[in-house]
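FORM 7B: Structural annotation worksheet

SECTION A. Query
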Amino acid sequence: MSAPEPKPWIMAIAPYIPGRSTTDDGRKVAKLSSNENPLGTSPKAREAFLSAASRLERYPDASGTELRDVLADKHGLDPARIIYGNGSDEVLHLAAGAFAGPGDEVIFVKYGFAVYEIAARRVGAVPVIAPDHDYATDVDAILACVTERTKLVYIANPNNPTGTYATKEEIARLHAGLRPDILLVLDHAYAEYIEGDAEDGGMALAETAPNVLVTRTFSKMYGLAAERIGWGYASPAIIEAMHRIRLPFSITIAGTAAAIAALGDTEFVEHTRAHNAKWRAWFSQEIAQLGNAGLRAVPSQANFVLVLFEGKLTAEAAYKGLMDAGYIVRWLPGQGLPHGLRITVGTEDETRGVATALRAMVEKAG
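SECTION B. Predicted structure
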């Protein structure tokens, strides 16, 4: 008996697997697997969210006018060139949906965000994986992958899951090396965590270049992962094309109110940034002290650290050991990192606890 058959490129997708929040035996433990804000959410954002409960019967504003206006004012942008989505994930999917299709090629780095491959395959495009340079973005390797069929390049900066960062000069060189008909998507989900005043120049490129899209999210620094609010900025032509396939009501009234309030709470943002910088550095130094046992922390500019296990203690054993000790982190064999754990920078107690547990496991492994 015949039945509907899904497209072969859909069946080639490996579904996205989110970070776990419970152990194998159902215990709820410290969750350091999804790069959430360990300090929670801005009190002002929470208050704005709760106050929106009186409007549950209403559809949200399909144009997201208020949110776009506030974002534009904060970042010095043109609100007409801002698009919003259900997390930056939706905006990333919109880019592939509008600018790639069957037979086209989409490039991303070897250790890149899993959503890039899903977005490419979803529209029938061919994923092309560029080699890395010590877990970091290699501009020359990306440019070497470009063919006449290339339509889109995804770059997360800082990169997820490695935390590595491509400089402004590297991003400019990458953009200069791409044909003008290739869309460069710069995923800035972790941009707020970059140390000091450094930035990759992506927003300025999106302002002036017709083939650059920058995406951002409220899920990380702003602590609004539950509300799934992301946004993007690009030329009018890119945004107009993406609007044609955007869901009309993809962000909620309450989430929008919380996001707007979060943008105004600079005290919470600065507190979060300072906390992350302090404990990211501390944790990386702790891992460096275990270097003789084969542990290495990849230099990170995000709110997590990728720890590589190249000694007697394996990443899988450490993953299970940390779970037993009360901490869930991200083991990534499905992304080519069976020897690595991505560990979110947690609270002080959580970060110290993970370091202590890892040291104990190293000593036990000999």
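SECTION C. Observations
The domain at 17-40+267-365 is CATH 3.90.1150.10 (Aspartate Aminotransferase, domain 1). The two ends are 60 Å apart (CA to CA).

SECTION D. Sign-off
Analyst initials: ____
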